[in-house]
Amino acid sequence: MGGLAEHLVMDSVTALTRIDTQRARAVIEADQRLDAMQRSVENHAVDLIAAHRPQGKPLRELVAAMRISSDLERVGDLAKNNAKRVLAIEGRAYPPRVALGVEHMSDIALEQMKSVLDAFTSQDLSAALDVRSRDDEIDAIYTSIFRELLTYMMEDPRNITFCTHLLFCAKNIERIGDHATNIAENIHYLITGEQPVEARAKGDSSSYLSADWAEPENGRGGH
Amino acid sequence: MGGLAEHLVMDSVTALTRIDTQRARAVIEADQRLDAMQRSVENHAVDLIAAHRPQGKPLRELVAAMRISSDLERVGDLAKNNAKRVLAIEGRAYPPRVALGVEHMSDIALEQMKSVLDAFTSQDLSAALDVRSRDDEIDAIYTSIFRELLTYMMEDPRNITFCTHLLFCAKNIERIGDHATNIAENIHYLITGEQPVEARAKGDSSSYLSADWAEPENGRGGH
């Protein structure tokens, strides 16, 4: 599931930066496989818990597997949503540099996904906690992309639809980063039996962004 | 969990339509309780599966409880995100009718939540399937709000930040509707042992919305 989820994210970003609708359609199609795998992991874990009544770490392994497969299934949904947006913005005028930020952000999200899946395979607690601490970086880039896209929208209303879709794409990638963080927390639980002590504030600070920084003073022109 | 999740959704929408920051902060605070309850439901279900090795319907009840509590926890996250956006748009000029669509949409989402939780309590399969079939209505309203908000943004760039936050709020409510649908599908699974046969296409059609309908012909002036 991890490998497939990574591929969906990678392909959806490539589809987005190149406006490659064929690749986008392939992502939408392949996401169904991830959904089926998640259901199968869950059923299998429940069967094993019922059959063997595991305790301690063996039980935590099955619970963590269920939770992580649910995170990966949602990562696939987010990649699929970005792929759908490629179909919406196809054929539109495209200010190329606006996609650069989204691409950079998704490179980091993909690195986070890869690191956390490696940490799961090698049961490496400190690697998992590293992933968790790096999520702030994605959130910061998202907040900066949010501002940048709003500025483009204010500069020229013809950018509004395109930039709105890109905003949702960026938000989806930020959420992929959150799922990498969830997985890191489940690795902590798997290894130690506890959730990480200090609850991380999840999500981006753009939810709190007031617009004063970006408000054109007299109706047009951005800042 | 269902009652608390409903309250968070209701309060976050009231906070949004009245720009009531105190209520918004209370939602953000209360969401933590929902998260704790979800973890506790999950732990309890796993303990019961290991202790009693249930089969058939008793096993499905525990699996469904885990899945539904996970949906409710995410409904709380979405309400919390909307509450955060109230803090972002506080004190801003507010075209009142733009919030009406969001309010209408959330009334339907809340009705869906209420109906699906009732269907769970009474194990009423046909009521659950009704909820599932009504999700299209929320998606249609969301798509119409998406268009309306983009039009406001094109009419006046001073609306852009506010409308962008409202767009994300509307999207969050649309996702709350999706979670009601997920819960309906889990009730189907609980009662019949099968997932509903015909997989529903989830999500909104606005992901596919190209902008041609809303593109100003010469740079300004709406649609």
UniProtKB/TrEMBL annotation, chains A, B:
<dbReference type="InterPro" id="IPR028366">
    <property type="entry name" value="PhoU"/>
</dbReference>
<dbReference type="GO" id="GO:0030643">
    <property type="term" value="P:intracellular phosphate ion homeostasis"/>
</dbReference>
<feature type="domain" description="PhoU">
    <location>
        <begin position="102"/>
        <end position="187"/>
    </location>
</feature>
<keyword id="KW-0813">Transport</keyword>
<dbReference type="InterPro" id="IPR038078">
    <property type="entry name" value="PhoU-like_sf"/>
</dbReference>
<dbReference type="GO" id="GO:0005737">
    <property type="term" value="C:cytoplasm"/>
</dbReference>
<dbReference type="Pfam" id="PF01895">
    <property type="entry name" value="PhoU"/>
</dbReference>
<comment type="function">
    <text>Plays a role in the regulation of phosphate uptake.</text>
</comment>
<dbReference type="GO" id="GO:0045936">
    <property type="term" value="P:negative regulation of phosphate metabolic process"/>
</dbReference>
<comment type="subunit">
    <text>Homodimer.</text>
</comment>
<dbReference type="InterPro" id="IPR026022">
    <property type="entry name" value="PhoU_dom"/>
</dbReference>
<dbReference type="GO" id="GO:0006817">
    <property type="term" value="P:phosphate ion transport"/>
</dbReference>
<keyword id="KW-0963">Cytoplasm</keyword>
<protein>
    <recommendedName>
        <fullName>Phosphate-specific transport system accessory protein PhoU</fullName>
    </recommendedName>
</protein>
<keyword id="KW-0592">Phosphate transport</keyword>
<feature type="domain" description="PhoU">
    <location>
        <begin position="1"/>
        <end position="86"/>
    </location>
</feature>
<comment type="similarity">
    <text>Belongs to the PhoU family.</text>
</comment>
